[in-house]
Specification:
Blueprint: H1 6-15, E1 20-25, E2 40-43, H2 49-58, H3 78-85, E3 105-108, E4 115-118, H4 124-131, E5 160-163, H5 165-170, E6 178-182, E7 192-195, H6 200-216, E8 221-225, H7 234-243, H8 259-269
Parallel strand pairs: 1-3, 5-8, 6-7, 6-8
Antiparallel strand pairs: 1-2, 3-4
Length: 270
């Protein structure tokens, strides 16, 4: 990177190693092949003993793309990577399950007004307090393109919908082959039920594995209970909103949607 603001050094000392990615102007010798053609570069120091040892032995940095196919559910274990790519899987260093579970917070540090480009478990409030400045929300427009900005992302192949607890209690979900992710069991008997912890950090650790488990189960539909509205849940809610953004027509299920699923989808559109 070239210009690095003072607040970025403060964050580096406080949050690195950890799930914080900072975007800076790139040095001229940094290839645009690894910056998506942009004049910026995103930097992070991961907090895992094996990765840190690997970096230390290498003596430099790594270019690190996502370990999943574009738009698919993010991997949180080495077995997820192997399942995702099959025979095309890259050499994989197994460090166990991810400790944070969802992707890092990405912050643009291109000027004196930093802004979050992707929500993560390091919040805007934590960043603001650490550097004694205001960090803009991710809802404001930015010219920097970063991972996870697509409307549909982190998505299972199975059709998935977000529903309120009230809607879950009313919907005729038992009429179809349905999986469920939520905080309390649904009132009807469903094929697969995965209950999330009530702590956002614990829920973040397992949300992708829950999605992957139900996706591999081959159900007609995955129903996900809405996340709480507290700010600590916003990063998880962001991932789930994108994971459920696809319409039925965009899913493989649209080629043969059964009448029972059509009725459920009709109910959800009301």
């Amino acid at each position: 990177a070239t210009t690095i603001p003072d607040y970025a050094w403060t964050w580096a000392k406080m949050f690195w190693p950890g799930p914080l990615t900072m975007v800076f102007p790139r040095r001229p010798e940094v290839s645009t092949i690894i910056t998506a053609g942009q004049d910026t570069v995103a930097l992070r120091v991961p907090n895992h003993p094996q990765t840190l040892e690997l970096l230390e032995r290498w003596g430099g940095a790594f270019v690190a793309p996502s370990a999943n196919r574009y738009g698919h559910i993010s991997p949180t274990s080495a077995s997820d990577v192997l399942d995702e790519f099959g025979e095309d899987a890259p050499t994989t260093l197994d460090g166990g399950s991810c400790r944070v579970g969802i992707e890092s917070t990405i912050v643009s540090c291109l000027d004196d007004s930093p802004r979050i480009l992707r929500l993560g478990m390091i919040s805007a409030q934590a960043l603001s307090m650490a550097a004694d400045l205001q960090v803009a929300s991710p809802n404001e427009r930015s010219s920097v393109v970063t991972p996870g900005q697509s409307t549909s992302h982190y998505a299972p192949q199975t059709l998935a919908v977000l529903m309120s607890r009230e809607a879950i209690n009313r919907a005729p979900l038992s009429d179809i082959d349905c999986g469920f992710i939520g905080f309390e069991p649904p009132p009807m008997l469903l094929s697969d039920v995965i209950l999330l912890p009530h702590d956002p950090e614990e829920a973040a650790q397992c949300i992708y594995s829950a999605l992957r488990q139900l996706d591999q189960a081959g159900r007609e539909l995955i129903v996900i209970e809405n996340m709480p509205t507290d700010s600590a849940w916003l990063p998880i809610a962001d991932r789930l909103t994108r994971a459920t953004a696809k319409s039925p027509e965009q899913h493989r299920a649209s080629d043969g949607v059964g009448e029972s699923l059509k009725s459920i989808l009709g109910y959800l559109r009301k």
